[in-house]
Amino acid sequence: MISVVILGAGNVATHLFKAFAKAENIVVNQWYNRSLKTIKPYKNKVEIIDDLALLNDADVYIIAVSDDAIAELSEQLPFENKLVAHTSGGVGVYDIDKKHKRGVFYPLQTFSKDAEMDFKNVPICIETIDKKDYHILKALAISIGSPTKKVNSDQRRVLHLAAVFVNNFTNQLYRIGHEITESEGAEFDLLKPLILETAKKVQELSPYMAQTGPAKRHDKKTIKKHLKILKNEQHKDIYKLLTKSIQHTHGTSTGSATNFEKNTHNGRKKL
User: Fold this and answer.
1) What's the predicted TM-score (pTM) here?
2) Is the pLDDT reported for residue 271 higher than 90?
3) What is the 3-state secondary structure (H, E, C) of the chain?
4) What tens digit of pLDDT does each residue of 223-267 get?
5) pLDDT tens column, 105-128
């Protein structure tokens, strides 16, 4: 049995608690947050506290707070030589106070509090300083059904950056698409099968091989028509920027991006 204390009450903390609570060989001893109001709905399922002095003993202390608060919170913990792991993609393992055994338990996924999450679809990127601690965090991840990967701080920062492009930026493009259709009386729902197919394609093909559309074809007439339809200047700028990026990648001359793709197996580079 692995005992856990969760510190923080954001989306990641909430989903981890739900996953840990369902696991047979994990027990959540406590859930800490500066404000009890946020975690009050769970008071009948776990002991909730807002005072670090009341922390109980546990095998792992999971810090799931904002990046800027990780170092300070780890320093405030009233114990030492315990395994403390944060869940951030952009913070290094050494940002945790050195009085602790330090680790990272980074779930590479997008989390919304009201959306159900199957942790079989949530790879956990793990990093520790001590090899013994790695096995504890790996066992924790396996217990909730997650695939695991040993990833160092530099690799994790790159993954986090790439995640911003493929998730946060992509979602903003969905929002723009929704605004465009709604403003012209069209139905955004008609685009949902296209969204799913696009995501499905990159499971089998590299993004390079999956690219289609007027920018790749250098279809100047269609591009001009699209720009004429767009009334929002910011949307025009985004359209032009992404069109230019696609054309640079799929240009007739052999650019650096094309060379990169050619030097990989079907567009996939082995790590």
Assistant:
1) 0.85
2) no
3) CEEEEEECCCHHHHHHHHHHHHCCCEEEEEEECCCHHHHHHHCCCCEEECCHHHCCCCCEEEECCCHHHHHHHHHHCCCCCCEEEECCCCCCHHHCCCCCEEEEEEECCCCCCCCCCCHHHCCEEEEECCHHHHHHHHHHHHHCCCCEEECCHHHHHHHHHHHHHHHHHHHHHHHHHHHHHHHCCCCHHHHHHHHHHHHHHHHHCCHHHHCCCHHHHCCHHHHHHHHHHCCCHHHHHHHHHHHHHHHHHCCCCCCHHHHHHHCCECCECCC
4) 999 999 999 999 999 999 999 999 999 985 444 444 555 444 444
5) 999 999 887 788 899 999 999 999
